[in-house]
Specification:
With 136 residues, this protein is mainly beta. It has one domain (3-134): Immunoglobulin-like. It has one helix spanning 127-134, and strands at residues 3-9, 20-25, 37-41, 47-52, 70-74, 93-97, 111-115, 121-126. The protein has a 4-stranded mixed β-sheet. A hairpin with a 5-residue loop joins strand 3 and strand 4 (47-52). The longest helix is centred in the last third of the chain and has 8 residues, at 127-134.
Length: 136
């Protein structure tokens, strides 16, 4: 299964700093997602924005996302004192900040995609379906 898009927390009515995409490793093996990309696409398939996961995390070039670990990518800027790796418990939660000044997940017709380091799409979904699934 691998890294799955679990939900999107849209920007409206939240400010962009709280808007986020949530991913979870639904596989049984750890995933090394360094250099993977989250892509925001318009309804006609145009690539609008990209977020690339870092090659190193806290000085570790071999960082991995374990089974059931959650990865949250916030659209906004990293708050002062905001940690990337939030917990050491299982499942762990990793937090990243895109650094944008505006909300981007505002059109239900847009798409979010996740690509691995080779550019292969490993998961893709409409914003509408991930917002609705997140409400359950």
């Amino acid at each position: 299964m691998g890294l799955a898009l679990s939900k999107i927390m849209p920007g409206r009515p939240r400010p962009s700093g709280l808007e986020s995409v949530h991913l979870v490793n639904q596989g049984v093996s750890p995933l090394q997602i360094a250099d993977w990309t989250v892509i925001h696409m318009s309804s006609d398939g145009r690539h609008l924005r990209y977020f690339k996961f870092p090659l190193e995390l806290e000085g570790n070039p071999q960082w991995v996302v374990g089974p059931e670990d959650v990865v949250v990518v916030f659209s906004g800027k990293k708050p002062e004192g905001g940690d990337t790796k939030q917990s050491i418990d299982r499942p762990r939660e990793f937090r990243f900040w895109w650094g944008l000044s505006e909300a981007i997940w505002t059109s239900l017709e847009d798409t979010v995609a996740v690509r691995d380091e080779d550019g292969v799409v490993v998961n893709e979904a409409s914003v509408r379906t991930r917002i609705e699934q997140g409400k359950k």
